[in-house]
Design brief:
alpha/beta, elongated, seven-stranded mixed beta sheet, 25% helix, Rossmann fold, disordered C terminus
Length: 434
């Protein structure tokens, strides 16, 4: 819950030549039509589809991601122009046989790097709306003004609305301007949630933002699994995985020395193992391992060789294992090399969280779904995995191998609290608006 309150934002208790594409858009008069922006590997769209909504197009610029979408959902239209900043000028309601106001939902997660923790703290990074990569937020808001959808859904890292140089005031100002020009009542309601509290077997804190055009109250879903999470073993214990990536890097042979659910802190003066590292002198994800009896830690998109979470079998996770921890269905195919597959999955919205959000939007807007779909919405989410009856015990860590024993000795701890460097002076002044 947040104390901030901005106008238009409040916290929760074209051109035909540009449309050359793999296929023409569907213009069937469907209820629950969704225009997906920044679609990536389809995590958000899978969940919305499971909630009974219909994806009519995916605006995505990555060729790797477009390949995944095309392979899994050939009926989803992929405009040739996947850059949202360009598509907002070339793609309009008439391209789908509809008028402004007839689209049900625009949904997307703008690139999160400008709002990530790394961007907030790294001394050489440009964070938030100061980052050129954040330009796409303006493109998304321009698409909203063009289509005037009944609902807008934005998913992003928590820094998107809470970090330094965040997008909160810009979104609020743009929605207020849209409301003045078109008589709409967009009022963004948002909260930061942990996906694990909704049954995703992964701790993943995300900013969830919903706005309705016509002043309908927004009801963000309430947590269903707080205190009783779906665990890593629940989704990985029955997976027969042929692809088992091999660990690499100078610290790879230390993984068996880390207990399940632990990280390098085990090998510090305040840990239970030998002292190889200074207390809190590394990033939390350094040599971080999964625990069978807990949800996964947040999966990164571009991990280094020593960046976890690692499998409890002391190796990197496979793409399929990451997909299960993200709640992707097993029939979703990502045939990409490990590095690309990891990036696509690590950047995705957990489909189960998207399904739950989609259900909330369908209920709030009463999108006129058929009775059988209404009955389905009364049952548990289709992507939710049940907890298994038992979890095997953890394998205890081993002693530090001989190759590292010369490094054992007293190490200086982090000089401060280990929470990162001080705020950058350039960020204290606030955000850049336009």
């Amino acid at each position: 819950m947040f104390a901030v309150s901005l106008a238009g934002l409040r916290p929760h208790h074209s051109q035909e030549s540009a449309l050359t594409a793999l296929r023409k858009p569907s213009i069937a008069p469907l209820l629950g039509r969704v225009l997906s922006l920044f679609s990536g590997a389809g995590g958000l769209d899978i969940g919305l589809e499971r909630a009974g909504l219909h994806v009519i197009a995916c605006v995505e610029r990555s060729d790797d991601a477009r390949g995944v979408l095309s392979k899994n959902r050939p009926q989803w239209y992929l405009p040739a122009e996947g850059d949202v900043n360009v598509a907002c000028r070339t793609l309009g309601p008439s391209d789908f046989g509809i008028r402004p106001g007839e689209l049900d939902l625009i949904a997307g997660g703008p690139p999160c790097q400008p709002f990530s923790k790394a961007a907030q703290w790294h001394s050489n990074a440009r964070s938030g709306m100061r980052d050129d990569r954040a330009e796409c937020v303006y493109g998304m808001l321009a698409m909203v003004e063009s289509f005037l959808p009944k609902a807008v859904l934005i998913e992003n890292v928590e820094g998107f609305l809470t970090g330094r140089a965040n997008a909160a005031s810009i979104i609020a100002d743009r929605f207020a301007a849209i409301n003045r020009r078109h008589g709409s009542s967009y009022d963004l309601v948002w909260d930061v949630v942990d996906a694990a509290d909704f049954g995703v077997p992964q701790h993943r804190r995300r900013a969830i933002c919903i706005a309705y055009r016509d002043g309908v109250p927004v009801h963000l879903p309430e947590p269903t699994h707080a205190g009783i999470p779906v665990r890593a073993w629940d989704v990985l214990g029955n997976l027969v995985e042929d692809e088992k990536p091999v660990p690499s890097g100078q610290w790879a042979d230390l993984l068996p020395c880390i207990p399940e659910g632990g990280n390098y802190l085990h090998l510090t003066a305040r840990g239970a193992g030998e002292e190889l590292f200074g207390w809190r002198t590394r990033y939390w994800s350094f040599l971080l391992k999964l625990a069978k009896d807990r949800p996964s830690w947040t999966l990164p998109a571009s991990p280094g060789p020593s960046t976890g979470p690692f499998h409890w079998d002391n190796r990197p996770l496979s793409v399929r294992e990451m997909m299960r921890l993200q709640s992707f269905p097993d029939d979703w195919i990502i045939n990409q090399p490990l590095r690309i597959g990891r990036r696509l999955v690590g950047n995705a919205t957990p489909p189960l969280l998207a399904e739950i959000l989609g259900r909330a939007i369908v209920r709030d807007l009463d999108l006129g779904l058929m009775q059988d779909r209404r009955d389905t919405l009364a049952s548990p989410p289709s992507l939710l995995v049940e907890r298994r009856s038992s979890v095997p015990p953890a394998v205890p860590p081993v002693s530090v191998p001989a190759a590292y024993r010369s490094l054992i000795g007293v190490k200086e701890p982090h000089a401060g609290e280990g929470r990162g460097p001080s705020p950058r002076a350039s960020d204290v002044a606030g955000v850049v608006t336009r």
